[in-house]
Design a protein that fits this description.
71% of the residues lie in helices and 0% in strands. With 187 residues, it is mainly alpha-helical. The chain folds into 3 domains: 31 residues, no CATH class; 75 residues, no CATH class; 74 residues, no CATH class. The longest helix has 25 residues.
Amino acid sequence: MSLMIHLNALFLGHLSLGHLPSSVPSLISAFDFFNHQPIKDPVTMFLVLVGVMLVAPLLFERLGLPGIVGLILAGVVIGPHGLGLLERDQTIVLLGTVGLLFLMFLGGLETSLDDLKKNAGAAMGFGLMTFLLPMALGTGAMLLAGYGLLAAVLVASCLASHTLLALPVLNRLGIMKAPPITATLGR
């Protein structure tokens, strides 16, 4: 029997894993799609992560959206609250932290100290307003919804921190040096 016939029979329940060629059970258990268990094999985990990191940004950029949004949404889909392919372990936390630091580093590379000095007052005022207002409103709304203080502050901080998502879009449009952008981003 061919591999496809074996897999179809397995899906239909007509065949057990013992009747498959010796390579197929290891392939199935490596991905663990059938049991919805997180991937434990480091090579398979690496392949899934590299595949997502290569495909998601390209797909979202073709749709006219920032690649970083594709990475975030793909992480949600394959993570423990989505398909459950990957669990949140030390490796995933480390890669997420490195990604965030890399994004912040790229933003720092675009920073012109001369422009920042020139627009310091406007940048500081706008930055404080666009952080404090969503933070206060978000915390208040979450407290009114019945959440505790820490949960309310956590959700509100997600609403108040949005600048890093805009950087790739502004950079792609070539308007990072425009005065309104300089004042908005503090650059």
